[in-house]
């Protein structure tokens, strides 16, 4: 019996002398939604492409559905790439017919939200509808694992919620889902997170596991712009959240000293860190 649908064992990928993915071991179980988080260039897409068997590993092995990447196994996966993989000069119906033909499955019915775009060229559809169409195409052959590369990027909150409903439905049916996202709020919707920085896996677990009891600092001041500049210039892991200045890692005394030296009148309070702040700290440590 297969206990994982996707698996990477000590996987490294180099492009020339550059290491894009560095000794990563991870897996996705059936029915699990695993979020792959990391800054631009962290290696998320490269890892996904190796898991799909689209890109050879330099070192290490990948397994899909219990065996090495092969055409007959790849047919049982669904993939929505960052650029969606739809033909922009075909209508939505034509795209779905094309995919159905390739898999030898019936074309899926259009859900209510998409039916009005049946005969519209994909290029003329709003991005949210394009993404929904790409989901439909990737899921039409009832895959056992789906890999989604930033599927909610650039779409509004309503479209994002609809896409997440679809992701959950798939997981409830037993499909293993690997999803990359830049939106930290979406981390909460995943069963497990993998954090990548500079090609390496720097943390994994639930959001609570990863954040743990780590603390950040909130700097309260009317002069938030000066506080931000002073801390940034001093190399602190500083974040501007609206007009609130937060520091992801660093001692309270050190931050107070920097602000005093810059003549910024402020109070500095420790608070529970967010996943974004924890990620920033782990990424800095990895560097
Ligand atoms: N074919 C390639 N040749 C050379 N370098 C590459 C190639 N593909 C990716 N890279 C490099 O590998 C690194 C990781 O890229 P990757 O696309 O995997 O990152 P990512 O985490 O998916 O980023 P993003 O969130 O921007 O998509 C980047 O520095 C990228 O420039």
TrEMBL record:
Any Pfam family matching the protein: ABC_tran
Keyword Nucleotide-binding included in the entry's annotation: yes
Alphabetical UniProt keywords: ATP-binding, Nucleotide-binding
GO molecular function, one term: ATP binding
Residues in ABC transporter domain copies: 6-223
SMART domains in alphabetical order: AAA
Stretches of the chain forming a coiled coil according to its record: none
Family matches, as SUPFAM superfamilies: P-loop containing nucleoside triphosphate hydrolases (SSF52540)
PANTHER family for the chain: ABC TRANSPORTER G FAMILY MEMBER 20 ISOFORM X1 (PTHR43038:SF3), ATP-BINDING CASSETTE, SUB-FAMILY H, MEMBER 1 (PTHR43038)
Protein name: ABC transporter ATP-binding protein
Native source species: Mumia zhuanghuii
